[in-house]
Specification:
Number of helices: 8
Helix content: 25-40%
Order of helices and strands: HEHEHEEEEHEHEHHEH
Radius of gyration: 21 Å
Distance between the termini: 61 Å
Strand content: 25-35%
Largest sheet: 7 strands, mixed
Number of strands: 9
Structural class: alpha/beta
Shape: elongated
CATH superfamily of the largest domain: Periplasmic binding protein-like II
CATH architecture of the largest domain: 3-Layer(aba) Sandwich
Length: 238
Amino acid sequence: MKRCLPLICSLLSLPILAADEDKIIKIAAGNWPPFIGQQLEDYGYVGKRISDVFAEQGYQVEFHFFPWKRAYKQASEGKFVATAVWMFAEDRTEHFMFSDPVAQEQFVFFHRKDKPFEWQSLADIEGKHLGGGLGYSYGSALDRMLEEDKITINRVETPEKAFQLLKYRRVELVPEEKHIGMFALSKQPIETQELITYNPKPFLSNDSYLMFSKAHPQASTLLEVFNQGLKKIKPLED
């Protein structure tokens, strides 16, 4: 059987490789279990949802996990087509286009059980010292309170560390998404779990999105592809 020359074989194989590469979607992500995370099965249920949506459209997702600020920066520079997952903020539209919602979050205040906490409006948390995540926004209302020094916050790398601050009374409240907070708390020693609870009234109900980088040449096309696929997938249940 005749064989092609090595150079010709290489040239013939290039279009196939290029086509395969075009079907791989590289996404910068942050760890936010149980929604999304590097160590979670299928990268978490939102990570799986994103993969399923693109698979419906004939694409394969490749997640790259970073600290949140780095994920944002790398995607904003066009090194990744998108970053997952984020709530909407007006200042982010400078660098990103937002997909249709991929999940909904409910943010609540966690507190020590021996210090009951009830609230009617955010004015009730004025003067409180909070524990929260690096690079996180907890919505425009809390952001504004922080800017106006009506509340203070000790920012740490993970919800687990925020709960440690709460355990040792170094903060009074931990604002966190309900599912994420409970997941993080379940990883703590039982004595810590027994100390901490949350007020069920959400201070923020918020959709989360896949953000597509305006600096990436394929972002607009893939945003449309993703939104089309999202309409074909069953919505997430609470």
